Amino acid sequence: MCFLCGYGKKRGDIFYIGKNFVTLHDKTDCMRNSFYYILFLMLLVAVATAEAQNNTSSPYSRFGYGELNDNVPGAYRAMGGVGTGMRRATVINPSQPASYSVVDSTSFMFDLGVSAMWSNYRDASGARNLANGNLEYLTIQLPIWKYIGLSVGVLPYSMVGYDFALSDSINNDYHYTKSYSGKGGITQIYGGLSFNIMDWVAVGANVYYMFGETSNTRSVSFSESELGSVIQNSTFRVSDVRFRYGMQLFHTFGDHTVVLGGTFEAQSKLNSKYKQIETNTLDTVQNLSGGCDLPMTYSAGFSYSWANRLLVAADYTNTEWSRARYFGQPNALRDRMKISVGAEYRHNPMGKKYVERMPFRLGCSVSDSYLKNVNAKDFSVSLGVGFPLRNVATVINTTLEYGHRGSMQMLSENYLKLTINASITEYWFFKRKL
Questions:
Q1: Closest C-alpha to 250, from 407, 419, 101
Q2: Which of 178, 203, 401, 420 is buried most, with the most CB atoms less than 10 Å from its CB?
Q3: Model's pTM, two decimal places?
């Protein structure tokens, strides 16, 4: 039965691939029936992601635009977050728009990812453990024509989520508590198109619609009632469009495949609104300001695969935040550099034993913080395994990532993140044969 439109044996013939079966039916009928399901699912996920995005509990998300997301698919997160040089027909890779053209001309794909995260925070005052989880992303990919691929999806751009308090006193006479909390995030709906201009060159582009709101609240309350309290609440709302461009050079000789890739995003003005309200026992003051930019970003990546058994890859990404305005201030943030390396191995993709067909992945990455006054270099190691299903062309990928950032002098964060994604491929671009 077709996964999307529900056609069964009465609507088409069956052919077998090993022990798997796929329904053959008319391409137009399937597209017509599946379009409404896809559209409804996309809208549902977009609303849920925008309203309930809370994939972080880090106090570091208090600063800047929050905690940034690199938008790497689940299968590649286990490889350290590589993506620029990755080109595989079985993985939707929104981080590299040039990769969509590798999609099989007879298949429809979608990928849904969720995550759970456990974090430990330590500083001079003590330690705290927190946990959270949510939907990570939804992406869809399908062929338009031979060597032309289309992808759409919903991805997070940044996340804000924290809640903590600090108590102190002034000369042991006046006791006060400072409280900090924040929530929200910036979501992006993207559409991307890729095509091959030669047998060994592919180009592509993504267009993103960014939207969302973050809210940050700070308050100071004194134990002595005559001193009262001060509450400051700020909201940051985004609604804008941006573009990413990608290119890949690839060549296969025998069992060996080499891919070189690059991406680029130009610096652009961010359409945003900022409002701050401060309330105390005397008055209320409202301030409005703006002038924010999205930074120029570029990346380069490399991958090498052998016989669909061994895959190694490396990425370098640089984001020039130091040149982007932040609330009208130039040089308020600093450049963010990230290096990722990873590998994947499966013993035999066509093996009779299940474990022989399972992909095992390993990777690591190191990146700088884009926050100028926060020395919080992020280092992580990851490992993962894929579980291919037998009745449909689906792989359940699991990734376990351990990371560390910060220091005891400011704030040390250790986290363990579990990501699970289902990458589903449905074969429905067939013409009926009588």
A1: 101
A2: 401
A3: 0.85
